[in-house]
Amino acid sequence: MEYFTLNNGVRIPVTGSGTNTFAKTPDRVYTGDLKDHLSAIKAGYRFFDTAEGYGNEEALGNAVKESGIPRSEFFICTKMRTREQGHLGRKEAEAAIARSLAKLQTDVIDLYLIHHYWGSDEEMIEVWKTFEEYCRKGVLRSIGVSNFTPENLQVLMSHAEIMPAVNQVKMAPGNWNHETAAFCREHGMIPMAWGPLKTDEEAAAKVQMIGDAYGKTWAQVLLRYHYQAGNISIPKSHSYEHQVQNLDIFDFELTPEECTAIEAL
Ligand SMILES: NC(=O)c1ccc[n+]([C@@H]2O[C@H](COP(=O)([O-])OP(=O)(O)OC[C@H]3O[C@@H](n4cnc5c(N)ncnc54)[C@H](OP(=O)(O)O)[C@@H]3O)[C@@H](O)[C@H]2O)c1
C-alpha cells in the first residue's frame, strides 16, 4: 500500500474501503453481518471509512476484532453526524466521540470528520474546538471535514488552531468538485473522494478505453487517477473480486494527457 502524509504528519493509506452499505440488507436495515468487512480485510484493506450516520460502526469494530489483526494496523475514519440533530456544540461533539469510540471498540480514532456543514458557523466552530482538544489529547489522531465548500472552509480555517487534514467530497466523472479540491490542496488539506466509482455508463466506457491499453478496468483507472492526482479514495464494493481489483492500481501509470481527459469527464 502507498501512503500520503496528512498536514499533521500522520500517514494515511492512499485508498481505503467505503462501508456505507456494509452489514445491512439491500434496503439498509442493519444486520451486523461482517461478510463485506471481512472480505475487504482479506482483499488487503486496512483503511475503512464509516460514520455514525451509517449505523454500522459496531460492525467495523467487530470485524477488526474478528480479523485477529492488531488494531494498530488499521486506519479508521468515522464522522460526527451533523444534519438534522438540533443544537450542536461541545457537549454533543464529546458525546458523539464517546459513542463512536464505544461502537468501534477502540480508544483512538485515526481520522474524525464533521460529516456535513449544517448551517451554523458558531456551532461548527464550537464543535471544531472540541475536535482540536481531543486531537491534542491523542484520542483523535487527525481531524477533518466532509462535504465542505471553500466558503465553509474559509470560516473554519479563520478560527482553527488545527487545520482540517482532509475534506471528503464527491469526486467522480460528472461531479468532480474540482474547485473545492483545488482549494483544499492550496490550503494543505488532502481531498478525499467519496463515490469515486459513481458515474454513468458513458463516462465509464470512455475511461475503459484508457484502461484497455493497460489491461485495467475503468474502476481501476479512476482509482489510479485519484492516487496520481493526490486524492485519497474510498471505493466501496460488496464483491471480493472488485475489492481485490480496486487495490490493484499500483503497477501502471496514467499519462498527464490521460489524467486531463479523465478530469474533463
Ligand atoms: N461523506 C459523505 O457524505 C459520503 C457520501 C457517500 C459515500 N461516502 C463514503 O464513500 C464510500 C464510497 O461511496 P459509494 O459507496 O457511494 O460509491 P462508490 O464506491 O463510488 O461506488 C459503489 C458502487 O461501485 C461498484 N463497484 C465497486 N468496485 C467496482 C469495480 N471494480 N467494478 C465495477 N463496479 C464496482 C459497487 O458495486 P459492487 O458492490 O457490485 O462492487 C457499487 O455499486 C461510501 O461507502 C462511504 O464510505 C461518504
- Alpha carbon gap, first and last residue: 27 Å
Output the helix-strand order: EEEHEHEHEHEHEHEHHEHH
Low-confidence stretches: none
Counting DSSP E segments of at least 2 residues, the number of strands comes to: 10
Report the principal-axis shape. Answer: globular
Strand order of the largest sheet: 3-4-5-6-7-8-9-10
Largest sheet: 8 strands, parallel
Q: What is the radius of gyration? A: 18 Å
Quaternary structure classification: single chain
Name the beta content range.
Answer: 5-15%
Small-molecule binders here are: NADP nicotinamide-adenine-dinucleotide phosphate
Number of domain units: 1
Q: Averaged pLDDT, please? A: 97
CATH level-4 homologous superfamily? NADP-dependent oxidoreductase domain
CATH fold-level topology: TIM Barrel
How many alpha or pi helices? 10
Q: Provide the helix percentage.
A: 40-55%
